[in-house]
Sequence to fold (908 residues):
Amino acid sequence: MRRSLAPFSFGDVALFTVYRQWWRARDTTTVVDLGWFPTISIICSLGLLLSAVAGSLGRIANPWSTSLFWTSVGIVVLPFGVRMIQEQVSRSERICLAITMSLALYLVKILHSPIYFTFPDEFMHWRTASDIMRTGELFQYNSLLLVSPYYPGLEALAAALSSVSGLSIYASGVISLAIARIVFTLSLFLFYELATKSTRIAGLATLIYMTNANYVFFGSQFAYETLSLPLMALGFFVALRREHVGDGSTRTHTILLFMAFGSVIITHHLTTYALLGFLSFWTLVSWVMPILTKRPYPIGPGGITLLMIVAAMGWLVWVASQTVSYLVPPFSNAAVEMFNMMMGESSSRELFKASNGTVAPLLERVTGFGSVLFLLGILPFGLWQIWMRYRTNIMVMVCACGGIAYPASLALRLSSRGAEISNRSSEFIFMPLALVLAIGIVEFKLWKKFDWFERVRFWGFPVWMCVVLMGGIIVGWAPWARVPGPYVVAADTRSIEPQGIADAYWVAENLGPNNRIISDRTNRLLMGSYGLQRSITSYGDGVPVAYIYFAKTLRPKEQDFLRKGQVRYVIADRRVSDGLPYASGYFERGEKAGRDPNKPLDPITWMKFNDVAGVSRIFDSGDIRIHDMEAVLAGP
Amino acid sequence: MLGHKSIDLIAVPLVSIVLMGFLLQDGEASLVRTIATLLYLFVLPGYVFVAATFPGKNLGGAERLLYVIGSGLCIIILGILLINISPWPITKVAWIWFVALVIWICSGLAIVRRHRAQAYIERRLVQQGVRLQFIWPQILMLGIAVLITIGAIWLARHYAQQPHTSGFTQLWILPVDQSSRDVVRVGFANYERRTEVYTVRAIYDGTIIREWSDIALDYEQTWEERIELEPSTQANMLVIELYLQPNTSRPYRQVFWWQNLPTPTPEPSPTP
Fold:
């Protein structure tokens, strides 16, 4: 389309010469056709509206809320799959679609908790952010998560945004992570695109990544991993691009690379180690491939890897040394459990069964298993196609090896400790796995006479993606936590309600910060965050909190434990005797040995503090009471 | 050096100064302030950083967007370490000055580096100039999608703020001064989501010593009084009972305070 020249004359001013040339060059107008993107955006927004309705119905315990939730997830996801699988889609449309789907799935979580944080990890990081803003310094003690202050990347963003804008930490966290989501999606798309030179594969791989079990809820919460993953993906893309650039910008890419990886190191421990593992493996493959194929290859990120190992170890040794004692027990326990299971000394975990004995409905179990089978079903095709078409491509080969780790990670799900590790690892393993699966879906072709196969691919992919995503949510997130609802006992997100929050704020205002307290798991989060208190725990302080609560009277032994922990206040929530805990316990993990696992707690367990001479009950809000243990501390 | 090519790099520090002036003022959170903050913290530093590190380099739109936002995040994350080791605490003022320094330094670097890459840029400006024309029905549809999404968020927030459980009342008793247990403050706060009428009764050593009747309290309103006890060497207990009218037969909330601290001597009982 021909258009006139500039609408006004610049005259002969030399300063504008270049602009005039530029303006003339704009004679050719490019029509920005967004394709199906606007239509899909409307469908997606309607899905989000339905998700909001599902949540609202859930709050009044309407039985339709769960069905509506799943329907809304389907409406949000399906159109993206339908469009992304098509061949004739522009790059910009694919990028828009990927970013929109990632933000839509992020909004599913925000619609779940739209006015304050409700996920356990979020309170832990809220406290760190709050401490930074309150004290103006890093590395303050956080009894909710001891390592959190030593990885302040997320809290830096939230604190900066909150202190400058005046927004709450909640709003600042939500906005910061939405920005991080955009970075994540763009990084993944560009990384996959650069690795395969195909926008179609890149688009599909990005969408497949979003179907991992933790993407919708766990990976959207206000927690350090949620930020570190986008930074890691950014680093991967920059590292890959650094090897491909030919315009002399290798050094500037290196600066950006150090910034991205440096940010990962101070944001999250596990992501740092996953990053180092990936870089090391990439380096190894870069060394091995020229030998095997007798072809020249880029030198690989060996130098970067070495520097990052030094930086990560430096941070671990000089700043975050507590990380070792935090990370080692879960991994060693999982290893012991797996070993015992293989030796036949312990039974495997019952899949789809909650700690309070609730078994998931049949349809959920079928979808959960189905999602795993769907992934495993495509994986061999992906590996085959990689061998056929990409075996000289270092990055794709690295991803292929990473994708093979997925079946291995499934074995961990048979033990209770291993299940958590397996679940958490999905966000890392899906990065390479998504590429392998996308290659399998796009590149696998039957002979021409089987033209029906294209139709299967076209209609099958959206359904496949939907099942994998839903199965991931089922496997990765407890049924009672998916949709908001009325209060239930010890159920993390479902136990956060206005009374507990108001009481925590009362404590911060009236008792001052950092009093040593004990409480049940829900009030520990609230008192430790909004209440600014110092929670005493068995894992942090060696005080058997559950044992103290389970006792029917406060005997000298329990009083000794209180003195050992210098516990000034005890929080007694009468609701712990209303039912069995939905999460792993009322107070702490591993508490089952001290109580009947099939019966709720006896009310005497929280009423006993009333009967101890000298112990004042200083606060009562109906469900929650606070007892002052000054007399016990002053005892023998 | 400060020619037409650097207009954006001159504009960014100027904009940052205007935003600094705005953001340094104390003010309530608002949409304008939030947008200004996002621009100041996450966009401008990233923009000038990318301009300084990739002057005239062949970055596509998506890559440039990623680098701008990504480096903006990294600058804030790494910046907190620098502020922490500086003599200044991590406060709003520190953040604003830190970002300002980043913007000004990177702008200066970017102007110099872009000047060196002049010929390259001029060539690219001529080669890549295009006019973007949007299809307006598509833009309209995107606008509708945004409006529906905002509606979804409003709906979720609205219903999350609705009372789905019964309200509650907080009652407390605390010493006025930590050094003395003889003077206490007694208070309560109404979170019943409606105006309620209360009665408060103070019972010391089994005797009613004070009573406050017909206290009408609106939602989220607080009531507080001081009670001075006669100094005593006995371990007496002050019990505060709160009654929610019309039910005055059974305390709605109850707290108690030991004037002196006896050594706790609970009855022994079997291990649970």
Notes: Chain A has three domains: 1-31, 37-482, 492-633. Residues 1-16 of chain A have pLDDT under 50 and may be disordered. Chain A touches chain B through 135 residues (CB under 8 Å). The first strand of chain A starts at residue 29 and ends at 32.
